[in-house]
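Please review the protein record below. Tell me whether the encoded fold seems credible here:
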Amino acid sequence: MYSEWRSLQLIIQSDRGHISVLHSYPNNVGKDVAHAVVRPLGLGLNSSASSNESILRTDKEVKWTMEVLCYGLTLPLDGETVKLCVDVYTDWIMALVSRRDSIPQPIIKEPNLYVQTILKHLQNLFVPRTEYAHNQITLCLRVLAAVQKLAHESANMSRETWEVLLLFLLQINDSLLAAPTISGGLAENLADKLIGVLFEVWFLACTRCFPTPPYWKTAREMLANWRHHPAVVEQWSKVICALTSRLLRFTYGPSFPPFKVPDEDANLIPAEMDNDCVAQTWFRILHMLSNPVDLSNPAIISTTPTFQEQILNVTGMAQEMIQHPCLKQLPQIFFRAMRGISCLVDAFLGIARINIIRERLPPYGISRPRSDSAPPTPVNRLNMPQASSTMNTTPPHSRRIRSVTVTKTTVKTSSGSTAHPPKVTHQTSTTSPLSSPNQTCSEPRPLPAPTRPKVNSVLNLFGQWLFDAGLVHCRLHSGMNRDGSMTGITTPAGLDVRRKPSQISTENMVANPLFDANEFPDNYEAGRAEACGTLCRIFCSKKTGEEILPVYLSRFYMVLIQGLQINDFICRPVLASIILNSPALFCSDLKGIDVLVPYFISALEIILPDRELSKFKAYVNPTELRRASIHILLSMLPLPHHFGTVKAEVLLEGKFSSEESSSHDKPVTFLSLKLRLVNVLIGALQTETDPNNTQMILGAMLNIVQDSALLEAIGSSQTELNVGGSTHASLKSHSRNSSGISMTSTGSSEATTPDSERPAQALLRDYALHTDTATGLLIRSIHLVTQRLNSQWRQDMSISLAALELLSGLAKVKVSVDSSDRKRAVSSVCSYIVYQCSRPAPFHSRDMHSMIVAAFQCLCVWLTEHPDMLNEKDCLIEVLEIVELGISGSKSKTNDQEVRYKGDKELNPASMRVKDAAEATLTCIMQLLGAFPSPSGPASPCSLLNEETLIKYSRLTSTSKNHFRYFVLDNSIILAMLEQPLGNDQNPCPSVTVLLRGMSGRHAWTMQLHHQPRGSRANQKAFVPEPHPPPKDNMGIKYNVKHRPFPEEVDKIPFVKADLSIPDLHDIVTDQMGVQHEKLKKLMASQILYENALEQVSEERLSKTLFPDSDTECIPPPPAQEFQTARLLLSHFGFLSLEALKEPGNSRLPPHLIALDSTLAGFFDDISYLDLLPCRPFETVFVFYMKPGQKTSQEILRNVESSSNVQSNFLEFLLSLGWPVDVGKHPGWTGHVSTSWQINAGNDDEGKQQKDELMQEDTGGGVFNGEKNALYYADALTEIAFVVPSFVESCTDSLESGLAMQESEMQMDLLPSLLKQTPLTLELFPNHSDSLGNSQRPSPTQKAKRLPLGRTVPPLGPETKVIVVWVERFDDIESFPLNDLLPETSTGVETSTNSSTSLRTTTSDKDVPVIFIHPLKTGLFRMKVQGATGKFSIVIPLVDGMVVSRRALGFLVRQTIINICRRKRLESDSYNPPHVRRKQKIADLVHKYRNKLLEPEFYTSLFQETCFGFWVRPLVP
């Protein structure tokens, strides 16, 4: 920078301005003269007289007196002479500030000339004295304060005076600070003030009289000789930070995050310094310290002329220079220099840093000094980074506030400090020196500043120093010499330092007589670690699409490879710093970064399986270190599957060992690294104790399991791994010995022993089997999670929820798993519920009940995904016992107690929320298992039939809905019975069609009464009676036998008197009676003749009649055609008993069976209202596409109009979320209440044709904007609508639509009869939506939606909607206009009650979860999740910073959305499950429309017909 300018050091050394004429006289002469002359002057200054004019009048007098004062400043401090000299001179130099009577007139007339001489004389004061050091310190501080005041307040200083002032400060600093530090000496006590005043005055000079290049060159050369003083680096760091704060303010504008420094430091920079001066000063001050890496080499620091002269004068042995006690502070000074540079880098990147420097450094283990370095090669021009428009990657550390803050720290060191500073007890609450800036355990990692400079620009400024510092005391391979192309540092011949003492060559030690391994400083790892961490932050801040020079990438990778070495020696501070600052390293699209995967894996194998990390606690918070390691693991998990058999070149493989013919330099495939990654993941889960870290690991497990399953499903899982012995052999052959890293885990300063074994190796033996397949991964994940869920995690709410979400996700992974493993998952969830319910009452809280509810939801997922599990008796019994426990609060059967029946138990559930969740599980078991998807498709688990549809297909001529009879069973099920058979029924059997409206939805059943088994009537069309048997012609022989009433023996019995008591007829007949008797005989004879003739005629007629005779044949009656089927059905099911109709005596509940009066006004409106209540949760997802640089909502909405505006992977991603549906025919949720839950008039074939047509259109996804089409996904437990909002022009159509809506509302108000003619639909407002045309139907993308007057929105909240954003450039995330796009995400749920003109948004932008998806150049996808953290911590499986594959992207996004919405419902105090809302509505219907009949009247009504749509209802008094 100043090569063409000469230095002023020779001028300073040859200057004799501080020599007095009295120095030529004997000492006693000068002392007496000085004492005699100075005393009157000093007394005159200190007198209290009002007039203290100077006794010096002429120029000659003043100059002669100044010669005496100059000599007086060299005298010992035992008297007052020196103090008086200081008093006089500090008073006289104020002549440039203000006129005083005590100042001689010649000085007042020419102040600049005299002040220049005075400054040269004052140099004598700063010559160290052996006695009265305290007095000298006080006097020196007075002079420095006077100089400060002079520089600040003087307005008349000439350039020459400024130059003399600067040279004065440089001279006194050099005289005190260039020599080795002496404990308690003047230099040690004044160093901080000296260098502080120098910089402060220098900045004033830059403002008022900018120094010429020779002065800058001189200052730089001299400052290089003072660097062994900690105060020099401290003050340099302070002033360069203050300058940087001013520089950034005008370079990048007010939008750039301010770099906040303490006010005391900021005041060092004069406010009047203009921007150009700030820029010039900043660059020169930055390089004033020369190469900070020199601080790591005592040989360089100790080779200054003054240093060598002092040492030689004391000992006479040059080889002891590097053993001077003051040099033992170099490791700390080197670290603070690197921390200052790191602070500057963070400022340029817009990254906040709160704690910059720690008071004391912990011990950092043994290191070796590196050899002499070549002079630094500074940048030749003022390369100020230019502001760029956008940014890219997430920084490797967390930043809560956008402003950057530097806290001032006071450093107190002594020259007597040893090479081993006192140890610092580790406290997790304090920020360790290697912790990433402003990082806490629960904070996200935000992006750097959007207008930050490019990586190349930052490296042009700081890269040379950082690369050199990152390789301090590292021995590269002999083919990688330390030349300018690699490290910028040359290595002298014969000295090649290695960390392991046993490998240091004896020849090298002989060749360099200054080498003494026992006395080298040992803490340089701290500064090296800081440099490595800073480099990682720089490269992680790379923008999307930004190009980095290959030379920078190669040097960076070399630094990382060296820092990640664990084969012979583990440098734990460097390793921890790299890990802490590299979470986003594999997410930043760095070219060639994947070659570092084996090295990072081996580093993670050291960290994650270690539970305590006791050997890292001295350097870093173990929780933060593990979190950063997990972030790196999340970004590397998809690599083996993604790259497959692609071989990764292992850099410098085998070249770190002494064996030149190493056979471990063969490249390895990415797929062979999968098992190592899985082992690290499993080991991390077993040893992790932090809740947030554990949740991140759980999300990663679902990622790897699902990715493996999908990979195997598409037939691309031809891995090169073998299970068994070959697997172990391959793993052992590719330990870190083959990838540059050994499998050891020892201390920071000792070499590893052959017997040492890292924890990962033990894990390798446990988990290597069967974890290379999706099935094995799934089984192992289930075993790990279930075991910990019921042990360590069951009392931690956040981990429990994440574990249950993981189990729910694992249930949906499509791989074949043995039933015992599935039952293990279900049984563990049941055990978890039992434990939570059995906890003592003080532990029962809403949060604990939320955990139980989440467990029931997880149980439902497993049962619906694997319904065959309940075919096993033990699993069914266990699940039903848990349901019983949730509903009643206890089990009916326990191991030690007798069975308690339901009627004998007192209902005491843990809470109503738990009871509701258990009821939902029971409903799932009884209604959904094996019955989903229903015949109407997955969009609707309910029947799509209602009263109007059934009447349309019945034999009734009238279409009135009053043909239905309505009953309510147990206050929870509404029965709508239609007694007329449907039109397609051909059998005249008792038929009834029933619509059941219950807690689980609406279901339609048609029932027929048959008295024959189904098999016997299979071929029988109608009832046919048995035919008469055919007659027989052979009648047999007819015998004429006279039948007697009594047997013949009766005639032989003799008569007795009693028999003769009744006379015969002829004995009593008289003549008169005889006449009558004869007449009777004649009548009898004629009658006999008549009867005989009649009998003969009948016989003749009978003989002529055919058999059988239709007149006399017995024929069965025809079947009945009319039935009272409602009565029959209720009677057959036992609902018509007297007990069922009686009011409960001690309850407010209605009887078990009641009738509803459908004739009351509003009945069918309430029935329709009940049908609108969904029977499962529904979610809404809005997907946006953001191109680079876009900031307005209009630009973003227009992206999806054409496929040319979006990436092809975006369309593939959309179709992986759900399937296309026609909004006009879709029976499920569409994203807006105005178009949801309609009866589907189409069929599956039409849906397939629609999908094919949509795929043929040129669309970027905007066709799914919810107006005509949307994307939809549903399972048995939830339904999701995916809407891609597009730009909607405001035209006359929308105005006409609004007018049509108003007109429709007026018609509804004026014509109430229209309300009775409800069309066949399940819309929220059927009348209104039917009156609108397709073009006028409101869409979710319209800014305002109107709802009909007089209709209320059902309680569908709380609203759960999620936003998914596809960002081409990761840096645009912070500029995403979420507030502007929120109006495009209207679902109608947020509409206020009874308001048809306004919308009320109940959620703010901070409450809306947003999932950002950024496609990487590798084909993978980087995720960023914001707003998803709430009361219950983060949501899995997607976590911030995760990288996922193209295969698993849709599944993981969808599963995360489901979990986010479930978490929000758990957090909500006002949320009721769908079945509870339906149950409450049914109870309301019963209360409003109950038909209160007495038992006789109820029975009578069952026998009466429904006529004209009304019940025949008797009057009740």
Observations:
- DSSP finds 50 helices and 18 strands in the chain.
- The chain has a mean pLDDT of 76.
- Residues 1071-1104 form the longest helix (34 residues).
